[in-house]
Amino acid sequence: MTLPSTMAGLIAPRAVAVIGASDDVTRIGGRPIAAMLRAGFKGRILPVNPKRDIVQGLTCYPDIDALPEAPDAALIAVPAALVPETIEALGRRGCKAATLFSAGFAETGDEGDQAQRDMLALARRVGVRLLGPNTLGIYNVGIGYYGTFSSSLDTGLPIAGSIGIASQSGAFGAHLGALARDRGLGCSVLITTGNEADITVSDAIRWMAEDDGTRVICAYMEAVNDAPALLDALDAARAAGKPVLVLKSGRSEVGARAAASHTASLTGDAVVADAVLGEHGAIMLRDPQSMMDIAYAASGGVRPSRRSLGVITVSGGAGIVISDEAERIGLPMPALPDAAQARLKQVLPYCAPANPLDCTAQALNDPSLLETFTRTALEDGGYGAILCFLTYVAGSPAMSDRILQAILPLRRAYPDRLIAFCALGPPEVLRRYDQAGILVFDDPCRATRALDAVLRMAEPPAPTSRPDPGPAIALPATTPDEAASKALLSEFGIASTPERAVADADGAVRAAEHLGYPVVLKILSPDILHKSDISAVRLNLHDPDAVRQAHAEIQQAAATHVPDARINGVLVARQMPQGVECLMGVHRDPNFGPVAVFGLGGIFVELLNDVAVRTCPFDAQTARQMILSIRGAAILQGARGQPPVDLDALSRMLSRLSVFAAAAGPRLASVDLNPVLALPDGAFALDAVIELTQDGEPDADRS
Amino acid sequence: MTLPSTMAGLIAPRAVAVIGASDDVTRIGGRPIAAMLRAGFKGRILPVNPKRDIVQGLTCYPDIDALPEAPDAALIAVPAALVPETIEALGRRGCKAATLFSAGFAETGDEGDQAQRDMLALARRVGVRLLGPNTLGIYNVGIGYYGTFSSSLDTGLPIAGSIGIASQSGAFGAHLGALARDRGLGCSVLITTGNEADITVSDAIRWMAEDDGTRVICAYMEAVNDAPALLDALDAARAAGKPVLVLKSGRSEVGARAAASHTASLTGDAVVADAVLGEHGAIMLRDPQSMMDIAYAASGGVRPSRRSLGVITVSGGAGIVISDEAERIGLPMPALPDAAQARLKQVLPYCAPANPLDCTAQALNDPSLLETFTRTALEDGGYGAILCFLTYVAGSPAMSDRILQAILPLRRAYPDRLIAFCALGPPEVLRRYDQAGILVFDDPCRATRALDAVLRMAEPPAPTSRPDPGPAIALPATTPDEAASKALLSEFGIASTPERAVADADGAVRAAEHLGYPVVLKILSPDILHKSDISAVRLNLHDPDAVRQAHAEIQQAAATHVPDARINGVLVARQMPQGVECLMGVHRDPNFGPVAVFGLGGIFVELLNDVAVRTCPFDAQTARQMILSIRGAAILQGARGQPPVDLDALSRMLSRLSVFAAAAGPRLASVDLNPVLALPDGAFALDAVIELTQDGEPDADRS
């Protein structure tokens, strides 16, 4: 369904009805009116309350039918039991969008959940879009619209600006809004989505992507309730050049438990969400401070093309602390060209002119030194961002004006660069830098991280190239055994080790002689997926006796551990040379559909969680980026004197697996290729496990 | 040498002479006097300047000899050339300590370095201890002593309190002081050590460890110039129960380069410094913000014995964000006991009572709910720290008094617990909580990290148990080959694989038959230490032919790659079963002497830098803690269905290696046991490389 026009009515109404309007400015039905009057809302406020003629000085209407016009939006502040008739009346009166403060729906349990479903069905029938229920509401600073009862407004109204905030949590969204205000940052809109019966945080992001007043989007979410809409919204923001900063909580066990009780919805796998949202350009964060730091640094709209940092400092120590932080996060700090260094040495013999550029405490008395060093860094260093560590000097009333006059011409001459100060001092002194387009941070490391985040925005990840998966794959009726799994995958171009399925010990010896010693023996059964766990695998068999003995042992192991298993014989495979063991898999994520995972074998995955994740399908070039993005990638590229592995073959295999998953459809629960042996020439799956969903029960069979 | 009495004179003088005193309050010789007059310095200020009778209203003396008393300290603000005669005069007049603002010494190059050495020799001769040269100076807030020319005082004097700051960088130290002041935090002293010709940051820490006015010590350092003194100072602070927060910069390549140019001293290996200082109880940090956060949280002196966090929140979302952060840093958030949860449910049916305890937006209007939930968390949850997420509500003038009255009785009733608010609002409103002993943070994640740091202080690391290394070891005259190295180590109880050194191929076959197939062959030469690099190792040889062929190949490899090498034959070793490959080593750190390193083999060390480091010697119990502290430790404990390795044997070996290093003395440059094979029963060095220093040139031979 298309949203824009109803969303515009919801977020920027020309007329808003307040159902359950109150004269008491501390009540839910009174707060929004009071805030709008205080802020000078540019539209019409239409209070509705059968018991009053006037509310807060405004004409009040006895019921919705009596309204003098069809409002663009309504605020509903009546008890849950009265909500259905209210929505029905709004529909009748031609109102298309309502913000539903009322609680007592899905967040209270099964009964409330049913009430919410019934209400949504009614709202759809009468053509009213809903924000909420159980929402703290919305505000739109530019037009003075306050469809919210948040008490955060008690300590002041927000400052108008370009940061948009979307939040599933009302209080946390309002906290972000208050944090921005207290830091002097300007906001465009705040939209909190409550129970998300209808309109979701994705819809809010989508709207902000198209809103001219919003330049940076901050989103807080606990659950992904509509993955395709979320990814669409992220794509729209990326296309509009607007960064989306996402704080996705519910990572921890405790956090996920709290999230479930809080939003009445399951939190998806955090690693997958990070990867998939990141794939669509979202900047994934963990704390509100870094969100505000980055939003602030990005809100000026400056997007330097060169990701490098030049540091000017009056303290050698601070220059080192900043250099350490830049290296930790991978932000390049190239040295100034030699000629420019020599020029600075002439100006100030004891300076350190490389980068950091230490213009020493002399600059404390002579802002022209600061000007000279900063100009040189901009002109000769060409840095995308400049960070000047000026500490308390910048905040000194005696110095601040001279510093501002020294830097202002440079700010104007290089509009495409970020210029930031690390400064301490009275807020009113520091605000003047800010107003001149110079970013101000009190902490040098936070400044470094925020600048880096903005520098990275110049090259957001390109949309994933999606190969056509081709015709649907005919999956077998039941879970295939290893040999059948490998055969199915090999039709898709996914190679496994040379091997044969055989029925008995004699067959195993014949197969071994055909393949060449040494060989590997594995039990072959659709009922035993994880063979190593029950000792039904034997490696490095050098002769017929060893093959016969191994055959007997694995039969015994299977009979002991899984007595009812159907045994299809054994698999004899050539023992492969030493290589790098990798892991590849796909599984169906409940939110995002099939996602592929790549990692190095064993510990890297299990202890370090060092994996790359992406939605399927994707091409080999994308697969290669995934493979090279893991921390352990150096192992594949020839670390420790080993030859590099065949990255082309490995990338092709991962891409083919992703296409397989897309073509296989929802009956495919998962594929595990573990290990995949990456060799200097080729890559081979040593094992393959395909799991299918039970009929009609997607995901029931996931392990 | 003993410091206390001179240090007391330097830091808390009863009388201070200002050499080069000025009437101009913006000059180096004028600023300290102005600041002391402004702050009401409790001692006597004695200006010295031949050109004036009165300076800033004080009697001025023409020269040092004319001073009416022997000052406890002098501030020297004269050009470098006049410094020697000034120091001589001070000694003559009985002044024992001087703070030397003058620049132009070691920081300027070789000539200045020599001038600094000459000056130090003179100072020692005349009995004057020196702070500096090139120092920004010192302040002692409680007595109003400002022996500093820092312009950070232009925006206000520090607040008196219990945080002490020691810094090698003047401007960065003053930045920390200004940051504390702007955050409303109280300081005891600031000591900046400049070039550290004499008094170092270690001396400053040592003094603060004994200073009654200092409760938390913050130290910024770029280089460790006197390792034993630093470790002594850390031990003294630990014994006094005072946490030492250390920001040690110069980790990055750029940072180390800048540090070298800044302090005229080499920065030691950051990993070693982190480990060794941490071993002595220092809390190692990377940024000033977390230093101030932790200093603030620790400065009240509350040290809960139970490391657990209870979270009270008015926003489910914030509760989740905090839970995520707590899990990320390993801070336990156990659930409230069931009975207590049930009681809270009776009070507020829709609350989430586990932990986080969500008392919902209802608490916004009813602070008694906040009281009930917080009391329950303290009483029934027993949490060491409580974090209440109150956001803008706590800062609301209408609510703040009621909130304070609700919490104050609990603050008094539980003096041994940390109570913190995450709160936004006007500073004057928030300061009232602070004054009541409630910590205030604007960011919930920073609050969580700071509380965790203080909770960890209850159990600082115990001093390392140091076994007696026994008599010195007679090292060979020249670098030993592998067989000799292993023999030397085996006398110390460090086991290696069963093996024999042989002269030729026939000998190799005889040795293989004695040891049992399969075997390993390695070249044996004192000139080839890293055998694998030149393919002079062959593994898994199953029969005499394979042994003969391998013998020929490795002779050829050695002849090709190191034609001049002395070849002592080959080493035949039993091929060991599969186990976990580890790495152990010791090397002589230029600052801290022999340090031992343990890690898992290969990638864990090379890619992830996942190692434990400690100064030698230490006992097996300590070794075990080191081994279990690495991230990959699970691999040793039986991850992936493997049997656990013999941790006792591994720990014993690491401890013995540390004792060996201590007993071997400074001629030992390093020992590398790589790999060490950890088996379920036993641990064996598969290779051993001992490197010795060249005669009289310690460290010259380090690789």
From TrEMBL, chains A, B:
UniProt keyword ATP-binding, yes or no: yes
* Keyword terms of this UniProt record: ATP-binding, Ligase, Nucleotide-binding, Tricarboxylic acid cycle
Carries keyword Methyltransferase? no
Molecular function (Gene Ontology), one example: ligase activity
Listed SUPFAM superfamilies: Glutathione synthetase ATP-binding domain-like, NAD(P)-binding Rossmann-fold domains, Succinyl-CoA synthetase domains
Q: Which InterPro entries match?
A: ATP-grasp (IPR011761), ATP_grasp_subdomain_1 (IPR013815), CoA-bd (IPR003781), NAD(P)-bd_dom_sf (IPR036291), Succ_CoA_lig_flav_dom (IPR032875), Succinyl-CoA_synth-like (IPR016102)
Cited Gene3D superfamilies? ATP-grasp fold, A domain, ATP-grasp fold, B domain, NAD(P)-binding Rossmann-like Domain, Succinyl-CoA synthetase domains
Q: Which GO terms describe its biological process?
A: tricarboxylic acid cycle
Task: Give every ATP-grasp domain span.
Answer: 486-522
- Pfam families in the record, alphabetically? ATP-grasp_5 (PF13549), CoA_binding_2 (PF13380), Succ_CoA_lig (PF13607)
Protein family membership: In the N-terminal section; belongs to the acetate CoA ligase alpha subunit family.
Protein's name according to its UniProt entry: Acetate--CoA ligase family protein
